[in-house]
Design a protein that fits this description.
Layout (H helix, E strand, L loop, with lengths): L1 H10 L24 H9 L9 H6 L3 E3 L16 H16 L10 H23 L2 E2 L14 E2 L1 H18 L15 H17 L6 H14 L9 E4 L9 H8 L5 E3 L1 H7 L7 H4 L40 E5 L1 H13 L7 H17 L5 H5 L11 H12 L4 H11 L23 H4 L1 H12 L14
Antiparallel strand pairs: 1-5, 2-3, 4-6
Helix pairs in contact: 2-4, 2-5, 4-5, 5-6, 5-7, 6-7, 7-8, 7-12, 12-13, 12-15, 13-15, 15-16
Protein name: SusD/RagB family nutrient-binding outer membrane lipoprotein
InterPro entries: SusD-like_2, TPR-like_helical_dom_sf
Pfam family, one: SusD-like_2
């Protein structure tokens, strides 16, 4: 596996469109030499970037800044989405559009299906963060540098269709160069259906009928059945493909992040076995101590007083959990409570907590005792809150996904407002869109937010 990563990192170097664009004589919008599965693998190399982000962790209030307190005060600032279009998405679109894929790398239908699934996954993340974004007219390279912004509802509807189509395309046979599922198409099909399921739940407040229909269709087609199905990006114990957090904590010697007081106070009183993975006891006391989110008085000299990132989290080869069986089970529990499916919400909830503990600790010996704690046991009178709070704990370090679930459900309901600043409800568009794509940019913010590209606008499903 290590050899595959290193070969890909070297052979696909020219396809990265981030910091190397100015150093190579290649048009990143028209990749034409790499094979289909190499382009897919290159797109997969961007997956951990969806999760490994201090800003995402601040949105969900998992981590607090121990010094240079700024991002956790939620400044009104733009956030670029260009790298997602310029690197993974254009590579995937090239595979989808290609009429010359090499069947020796696996059935062409499967190559295109995987590209469609990954493209849908990236776009789901993008639209949930920004709202309306370029979609139908995007990824045309030099043929269209100013794509229109499409309404999020239309994007969602098309993503449902694309994922269904991708699942239906899959045929017998694996594909090469797959660094996520090793070419296992049964897992790719379950992943596509799981995405449809989680996307459907996002509609619970804006269009529950559509959400219920899509949710049931996805479940019937087959979703994740165990943690072995999880979409996980596995880093290597190698500098060529190491964890983002290893680079920050170990290579840069940065103790810039502590577990938040909110997270520690959710986990410590109930002896949550995941806490020992999520963070380290404070060096000064040997106890788990969270830092108040957005506290401006910290100087970086008190890091011994707080629980910093756990060594498993910043390990060089740390896995990045992107879509998981635990999420499926929490979604099933909530769907029962909403009347979308039949079943026992408490049973799904208990299974979800067990799957989460197994995922994070590898050990389920303490699950029964943990679930018997009155503070953790399923509360049928406050079912959505019970489910949502434990889902938030489970999604640790995938802050953007936890933030989307918080926007949808309102839980956990004890996130703080640092310096009086509420938690944002979206990301602001790249500021240079006002120059690069002026007409479409202003039309999008006028249509959605009355002309104000604010971090406090509401995306379609959060209205």
């Amino acid at each position: 596996m290590k050899r595959i990563y290193i070969i890909l990192l070297s052979s696909l170097f020219i396809w990265s469109c981030n910091k190397f664009d100015d150093e190579i004589n290649t048009n990143p919008n028209r990749p034409s030499e790499a094979s289909g599965t190499q382009l897919i693998a290159s797109a997969q190399l961007s997956l951990p970037g969806l999760s490994s982000s201090p800003k995402g962790a601040f949105m969900a209030q998992y981590l607090a800044e121990t010094q240079y307190v700024g991002q956790s005060l939620y400044p009104q600032e733009s956030t670029s989405f260009y790298s997602w279009y310029q690197s993974p998405l254009i590579n995937l679109q090239t595979v989808i559009d290609s009429e010359e894929l090499n069947g020796n790398d696996g059935p062409v239908a499967n190559q295109k299906a995987v590209a469609k699934i990954l493209k849908a996954y990236y776009f789901w993340n993008i639209t949930d963060r920004w709202g309306d974004v370029p979609y139908f007219d995007a990824l045309q390279g030099g043929d269209n540098y100013t794509p229109t912004y499409d309404p999020q509802e239309e994007i969602y509807n098309d993503l449902f269709s694309e994922l269904q189509e991708a699942g239906d395309m899959i045929v017998s046979g694996s594909i090469n160069n797959d660094i996520v599922y090793n070419g296992d198409m049964a897992k790719w099909e379950k992943f596509a259906n799981t995405l449809r399921m989680l996307m459907a739940l996002r509609l619970s407040e804006v269009d529950p009928d559509k959400g219920s229909t899509e949710f049931n269709a996805a479940v019937n087609d087959g979703v994740f059945e165990s943690n072995s199905d999880n979409l996980v990006y596995r880093h290597l114990a190698d500098a060529d493909n190491q964890s983002y957090w290893f680079g920050q904590v170990v290579n840069q010697n940065r103790e810039w992040w502590a577990l938040t007081e909110t997270l520690v106070e959710e986990m410590k009183p109930v002896d949550d076995p995941r806490l020992a993975v999520y963070g380290e006891p404070a060096r000064s006391s040997g106890e788990y101590v969270g830092l108040e989110f957005g506290k401006e008085e910290v100087t970086g000299t008190e890091t011994e007083e707080y629980s910093l990132l756990g060594s498993d989290i910043y390990a060089q080869d740390a896995p990045v959990y992107l879509v998981t069986y635990g999420q499926v089970l929490f979604a099933m529990a909530e769907a029962v409570e909403r009347g979308w499916i039949t079943g026992d919400a408490e049973e799904y909830y208990n299974m979800a907590v067990e799957a989460s503990i197994e995922q994070w600790t590898g050990n389920t010996d303490e699950v029964d005792e943990f679930l018997n704690n009155p503070e953790i046991a399923f509360d049928a009178d406050n079912a959505i809150e019970s489910i949502s709070n434990q889902r938030w704990v489970h999604l640790y370090m995938f802050g953007y996904e936890a933030w989307s679930e918080w926007r949808r459900t309102g839980y956990p309901n004890d996130l703080v407002e640092p310096n009086g600043m509420a938690v944002p409800t979206r990301l602001s568009y790249p500021d240079n869109e006002a120059f690069n794509n002026e007409e479409n940019y202003y039309e999008a913010i006028d249509r959605q937010f009355g002309g104000d590209d604010s971090i406090y606008g509401n995306v379609w499903w959060d209205e």
